[in-house]
Design a protein that fits this description.
- It is a single chain.
- This protein is of the alpha+beta class and about 300 residues long.
- It contains ten helices and eleven strands.
- Helix 2 runs antiparallel to helix 3 and helix 5 crosses helix 6.
Length: about 300
Amino acid sequence: MEYPAINFDNMNVKIAIGDYVLNVLYVRFGYFYSSMHRHSHSNKSYELHYIPGGYGTLIANEQEYPITPGTLFMTGPDIAHEQLTSPNDPMAEYCICFEIIPGPSWPYPAKTLEEQESYTMAELLKETLFWFGQDTQNMLHSFQQLSSETIHRYIGYDRMVKQIIEQLVIKLIRNYTDNRPSIRQPLLRTLDDDRLILIEESFLTNYSAITLQDLANLLGLSKRQTERTLREDYGSTFMKKRTVARLNAAAFFLRTTSLSISSIAHKVGYSTLEHFCQSFKKHYQVSASSYRISRNANTGE
């Protein structure tokens, strides 16, 4: 079955919930014809992943989770994860990435039932850094509506897009809480948003060659400003973040390919095999060759 496409990066969607704001960075849909190596997001970013079809494996927090049609999972700040797709039936995925940032202060304690419920949902969302399960809320229908709005862009589509994303967030929380009964009776996109997306994609796809100056040029910042941005949003320096991205990619290639360790070292950006081996062992507390042997043994290969 083919699913309707979404590739909507230029978002202008901010959703108030409790005393927070959900700043939606992008909504995307795609097929995993190749696997996605280990990565994590900034200290404010969350990703909602919905799998309408196909099969694979999610690895998060060093645990493996089988992905089947209808799988839903959330990855929050600092949750390193990777997605391995089935070559015979590749995963399809809808993905919403958003930041949770402080919003206008509400009166506290909450005075009305509406305020109480909004606070509760906001805290559940913010505190759930990782969740994995099967969707019980028919989220596929909402994603199909979202796709139709972004493709046709009929009058009022921007308002509809915001409403549908808000519905998807509520459905996500309902999945968290197993349909807990309600306690109630029945802004502009910023330059920082664009920069955050560029940073994410640079370290995910260009980890082998990216330099601090390259990233600074891409962001339109000085090298000092770029380093400050990385410290504020990721708690990391450029060199450390690039190293982690390279080593995560190397670990992925060690597990999923028969490339030599020397070839992998070169592929992820190391000029010498010795430097790669030292870095890998320091990060993973095991040599690259031992890592490959142990992981292949675990998978029965």
